[in-house]
Amino acid sequence: MNITEAKFACLDTETTGLSPQMGGKICEIAVSITQGGELVEEFSTLLNPGMPMSPEVINIHGITNEMVAGAPSFAEVAPKLMSLLDGCVLVAHNADFDLNFLREEFASCGLRLPDNPVLDTLKMARKSGRFAKNNLGCVAEDLGISCQGWHRAMADTKMAEQIFYYFLNRLYGRGVQTVEDLQKFQYKKWTELICADKESIV
Prior knowledge:
By secondary structure, the protein is α/β, with parallel strands linked by helices. The protein has nine helices and five strands. Helix 6 packs across helix 7.
């Protein structure tokens, strides 16, 4: 699929723990859909995880038990999320983390996370060799992207989205014109894939 035709769904989750296999649940999710660099749709909501959150977790994202008490469950928003993600390329920073939670949450509703192409800005950052540290906030700060609201789902989604378009705009036209081309850049150093010239793209 050509990059210009693809719809990219950048997403982020905030959770009650580090792993759904250890009982962690999603307590906030945000999705931003773009196509051709233009915003198509946004969605963000707190979620009631059905369990109390520890003070250590609350200190990370600032979402309290009181804030999620009246929020919908994941099952209530699952149809909306399925509709949003349908036909999209999924984009996230440390995508394995978010998608692991989403798979478990969808499975608990008797649904399956769509098997869409995935692009991970963390992997791209690592392979670019551009950054001293590759976590979301440090990459964003290095690129002059605002980190305001870091560790809330929509703020993190928008940071990852801007980081993604930073990479996409520099790779497009240098032999990278499809989603499949972009996926390759998650696993090989950029210098190994760009042979047209010696100019740094970062």
